[in-house]
Amino acid sequence: KPRMAKSAREAELNLDAERVPGQPRVTLSGTVNKIIASLRTIQPEKAQIAVTGADDRYRDLRIENTLTDGNGDQASLKKGAHIEVTVTAKPKK
User: Fold this and answer.
1) Is a pLDDT exceeding 80 seen at residue 56?
2) What is the C-alpha separation between 2 and 8, in angstroms, rounded?
3) Rounded to whole angstroms, how far apart are CA atoms 30 and 63?
4) For 57, which DSSP code?
5) Could you give the C-alpha distances from 53 to 1, 56, 59, 81, 90, in angstroms and in order?
6) In this structure, is the dihedral angle defined by the CA atoms of residues 3, 88, 86 and 32, taken in order, positive or negative?
């Protein structure tokens, strides 16, 4: 890309329809490695996710496997599923 002034870059970003302004974020791809059953019935099962592109120490994430789809219905991850993980940073106060 050619060099451009900061104001021109900001104007270009404002015209991008797919870009949502707001908090800084990154989206990484990952794969569900395993589903971990809960030892107690009151606790939900967990999904272990291997995140592509993360450092070795931070590659595996564990989250509750109780999700909601776009229609508001309950959903869960399955072993081997390819997913996208979005990490969002809170703004400084």
Assistant:
1) yes
2) 12
3) 13
4) G
5) 25, 9, 8, 17, 22
6) positive
DSSP tag of 69 = -
Chain centroid to Cα 57, Å, comes to 18
CA dihedral 10, 14, 83, 46 (to 10 degrees): 90
Q: Is the dihedral of CA 39, 29, 15, 89 positive or negative?
A: positive
Least confident of 4-13, 35-44, 81-90: 4-13
**CB-count exposure of residue 31 (10 Å: 0-12, 13-18, 19+):** middle
Indicate the length of the chain as a whole number: 93
Task: Give the pairing type, strands 82-88 and 67-68.
Answer: unpaired
- State how far the Cα of 77 lies from the Cα of 27, in Å rounded to an integer: 18
For residue 1, pLDDT over 70 is answered with no
